[in-house]
Amino acid sequence: MTRLSFSQNWTLINAIIALWVLFSLTQAEAAVLRPHVSVTGDTVTLGDLFDDAGTASDIVIAAAPRPGAPTAISVSRISQVARRNGIAWRNTQGLTRIVVSRSGIPLAPEITRAALADAIAEEAPTVAAKGLIEVIFTSGADRLMVTNDETPSLAVEQVAFDTRSGRFRAVVRVPAEGEDAQRFRVNGRAYPALDIPVLTHRMSPGDKITEADVDWMRIPATRVSQNIIDDTSHLIGFTPRRSLRPGEPVRSSDVEPPRLVEKGSIVSVTYQLANMSLSTRGRALEDGALGEIIKIVNPRSHRTIEVEVTGTNRAQVAPIGPIRVSSLK
Question: What is the pTM of this model?
């Protein structure tokens, strides 16, 4: 067996120490603390905070925050837990705290609006009486989220509504039920609104408005005057008096029943009595829609009579008193 000299032994010891130091430095440099962390579960672990926590990855350091409500963990606390669990980490970045957030499912806007609309309607019934409550958020609504395993829901705990300005401030709880529900402040405006029928494309005089040409639009109730059409029965089957643009409120004066009789056209006219029916033809002296009273002239006798339009180029005499049969000839 070959014996090593003292100098050789010392050289070997120094080599071992150098390897150990190099190994330790490699481990220390491998564990890097993330300045911003996002988690999906209920807890924050060393594996979430460090990019290489090794066997200490599952060590829990804190409870996870609610989605939409980030929290901060001090670096001194992280350092203590890390060193106790074998992570040789040095704060070379000079960090003081780590911001931790939790991913979640944003609440659908319609859920939030519906809950606030109900609360405001209860708070201000006179406003609700004017129409549907429309809600617009100015702050806070974008933070409302639930965890991946929770049912999206919201409960309004407090609401303050100014009827003059339409502005509101509210405190909501997300989710609606649960011991760890988070409270948020949301602000916005609310106003009564009405749904009215509008055209889906430009239409011109002579065009007949059909159901396919109509859609619904919600507008502030203050914009709906008495002559604004709010029922499709006063729109479908009618024709524009002028060119109408899509997506705009339609006034009753903007449309009219379709012209079934045009001025100058030949009209078939009937006169119904108790025991007989007479018919003749005449020339229309004016346009006429269904149910309108127009004047026609008999081309033979040149007599003028008034008739009620019943269809396309059709009309009937609806006499108030006796009528001379000769006027129809």
Answer: 0.60
